[in-house]
Amino acid sequence: MDKAKERRISRNRIRVRIRRKVSGTAERPRLSVKKSLKHIYAQVIDDAAGKTIVAASSREADAGAKGANAAAAKAVGALIAKKAKDKGVKRVVFDRGGYQYHGNIKALADAARENGLEF
Question: Residue 47 sits in which domain range?
Fold first, then answer.
C-alpha cells in the first residue's frame, strides 16, 4: 500500500472518530473544514436537520484569495464567519475533519474567530 493511500485511510479513521463526538444542532451548528491540494472549503451544518446553513470556499469570487495556502484559508475563515453572522449563527462547534489543527486549518479557525464566530 502506498503512502498516500495509508494517509487517506488514517485521516478517514480520525475523521470518523471526531464525528462520533462532534455534532451540530440548530443552536450550535458544526463548522466543517475540507481541504484539497487546490482549494479549501468550509460549511456550517445543522446535523439535526441535515441541512447546510452556509458554505464558503477559496473557489468563490468574493473569497479574496485563491488556492490552498494560509492566505486563502484566512480569507475563507473570514468569509464563512460573515455569511454565518448574516444567517444569525454566532456559536459553532469546530470540526477539523481529521486534519491536524495546524497551518491552513488553524488559519481558517483563527480568521473565523476574529470575525465573530465563537468556538
Answer: 3-114
